[in-house]
Amino acid sequence: xxxxxxxxxxxxxxxxxxxxxxxxxxxxxAKQRHMPRSFGHAEGGKTYEKIVRYCRDIGIKxxxxxxxxTENWKRSSEEISALMVLFKQYLAKVQNxxxxxxxxxxxxxxxxxxxxxxxxxxKVENDTKDFDKMTMIVALNYGGRDEIRNAAxxxxxxxxxxxxxxDDITEQTVADNLYTKGIPDVDLLIRPxxxxxxxNFLIWQCAYAELYFSxxxxxxxxxxxxxxxxxxxxxxxxxxxxx
Length: 243
Ligand code: FPP
What we know:
Elements (H helix, E strand, L loop, with lengths): L1 E2 L10 E2 L2 E5 L3 H7 L4 H22 L3 E8 L7 H17 L8 E6 L7 H13 L6 E9 L1 H17 L10 H6 L11 E4 L18 E4 L9 H12 L9
Parallel strand pairs: 3-4, 3-7, 4-6, 5-6, 7-8
Antiparallel strand pairs: 1-2
Helix pairs in contact: 1-2, 2-3, 3-4
The chain binds farnesyl diphosphate.
């Protein structure tokens, strides 16, 4: 558990070590304002930056964001292009935040992205690999089932090569073959925008996560809203299957 490291706001003593965010509701937020969906994503990007900074400042150690799922390719080419521009713009300016010492990790299948974007992802990951203030995980072209399928393939290949015996496959073996190797499980999963599902996000890692749903749309999910989730989390009793 992370501990309270902030005197400015009233926060619970017990904070989650790892928070996952499903950034949902950008499209509806834009529609309410008679604006294109891309406007909602741009505003969602600003909220994402505010939440990152806030989590870092209050001492959260790991945060994960669902930025683009394996299913999001079904959207219009216009919307996909707008999202790609947003990701690229963010990665191109992220050096400005290196002083905040946040390690960035990208999870998902990068092969579908433009080489330019992949290069930026690799560079940012490499530049920030030794930062230890907080680890931020951004899921791009990510799907939980796809991740587990990949892990199964890697494990099967090790068995086939004779490096691993079937009886030695443990839960840890699976965890070590996920994109999130070495990253602790999610403690608190937050989904704004009124949808009550987890949509294939970190399905292995969220096995025991506390779920928090809010009707607020992602662009409006500012630190005050996160505080509410943190208080709700602090009031939960986590038993991990025990009594
Ligand atoms: C889901 O809302 C949101 C997305 C598919 C994109 C999320 C991306 C960002 C917030 C951009 C910022 C991220 C980075 C890494 C810079 P939706 O479009 O499904 O909303 P709706 O349900 O209201 O239609």
